[in-house]
Specification:
Blueprint (H helix, E strand, L loop, with lengths): L9 E6 L13 E6 L3 H13 L4 E4 L5 E3 L4 E7 L6 E4 L4 E5 L4 H10 L2 E2 L11 H6 L3 E2 L2 E2 L4 E7 L5 E5 L5 E2 L2 E2 L5 E7 L1 E2 L2 H18 L6 E4 L9 H7 L6 E2 L2 E3 L6 E4 L5 H19 L8 E3 L5
Parallel strand pairs: 2-5, 3-5, 4-21
Antiparallel strand pairs: 1-2, 6-7, 7-15, 8-16, 9-10, 11-12, 11-15, 13-14, 17-20, 18-19, 19-20
The structure holds uridine-diphosphate-2(N-acetylglucosaminyl) butyric acid.
Length: 296
């Protein structure tokens, strides 16, 4: 084997993270490691746990707000987990956790494989999308997941069956880092799948500020209602703190004007929560994952 072709684990110290998030916000990571395959990912994960280091798993950074001081532990990126393979009768897709969900959606559509097309435009990695059961009004990704491979705390790999996973609105009971996912798809005419995909994409582009830096919908929808509708009805569209503002296009998006800090976003988030509670008696819950706030 050509030694140049052996994939290597990439490792950085004091690594900038802001450009690895769609929000473009956040301080550096003490260490950033991107293993090239499942085995080495699981090994590095176990090693960090043994050392007692806080471990953060980074996918596409699309549903993530990183604090301005960054994170002191190890950030393990799934970017190297990019395998993609059709198995069985060709309707089962095995894909690495680091693959871009949107790319996978287009790839399956072109091959006449239906089931993921409504998820087009969700700017996440496959692993991140599965972990939070990302979705749209009509359904979520968990409905198509037949298996998930995760890293164990002792450096091994465990398989979880899709039907054993508790899929809830924007969450799944998967605590361990996801390494790869298997989707069950159906055959259809590529043109029909692509037509549905393009319709879903047009709908998303019309309703959401997809070309501006954000972390997607900032809050979860409260049962039976829409956070965007409530924030809008509270008159908060355009409200800003520093470089962060509530999108005029969709009120559940907090957008980074270019210079926003995490502190700006958190302060704006608090204003929004307070106002919606006052006006509607509803407590909004963040959908966006926060580092290191969540563990503070
Ligand atoms: N609305 C407003 N003002 C706004 C935004 C929305 O009045 O600024 C109203 C709309 O007119 C509509 C209702 O609120 O009557 C629902 O809005 P929309 O159809 O945009 O859906 P959503 O509930 O705000 C959810 C998901 C989105 C997903 C869309 C489309 C959540 C938190 N959001 O948004 O997912 O793309 O449906 O299926 O579940 C995400 O999770 O990050 C996300 C963007």
């Amino acid at each position: 084997m050509d030694p140049g072709s052996i994939p290597e684990t990439k490792c950085w110290t004091n690594a900038a993270l802001a450009d690895r998030t769609t929000f473009r916000i956040g301080g550096p990571a003490a260490r950033l490691i991107a293993p090239p395959n499942e085995q080495s990912f699981a090994g590095v994960y176990a090693e960090a746990l043994r050392a007692g280091t806080p471990v953060y798993i980074l996918g596409a950074g699309s549903n993530l707000l990183i604090g301005d001081a960054g994170v002191s532990g190890v950030v393990l990126a799934t970017a190297g987990l990019q395998s993609r393979r059709l198995v069985g009768d060709g309707t089962r897709l095995r894909v690495g956790a680091g693959a871009s969900l949107s790319e996978v959606v287009w790839w399956t559509a072109r091959r006449g494989l239906a089931g993921l097309e409504r998820l087009v435009g969700i700017p996440g990695s496959v692993g991140g999308a599965v972990k939070m059961n990302a979705g749209v009004r009509e359904g979520a990704i968990g409905e198509r997941v037949s298996r998930v491979r995760v890293a164990t705390t002792d450096g091994g790999v465990e398989v979880r069956e899709g039907h054993d996973i508790a899929w809830r609105y924007r969450s799944a009971d998967i605590e361990a880092p996801i390494l790869s996912v298997e989707f069950d798809l159906e055959r259809d005419e590529p043109a029909r799948v692509e037509a549905r995909l393009l319709a879903a994409l047009a709908e998303r582009r019309a309703a959401q500020p997809v070309n501006e830096p954000s972390a997607g919908c900032f809050f979860k929808n409260p049962p039976g209602d829409s956070a965007g509708r409530l924030i809008d009805a509270s008159g908060l569209k355009g409200r800003s703190v520093g470089g962060a503002y509530v999108s005029m296009r969709h009120a559940n998006f907090i957008v980074n004007r270019g210079s926003a800090t995490a502190a700006d976003v958190i302060a704006l988030c608090e204003i929004v929560c307070k106002r919606v509670r006052r006006d509607f008696g509803v407590s909004l819950e963040k959908e966006v994952c926060c580092w290191p706030y969540a563990t503070a």
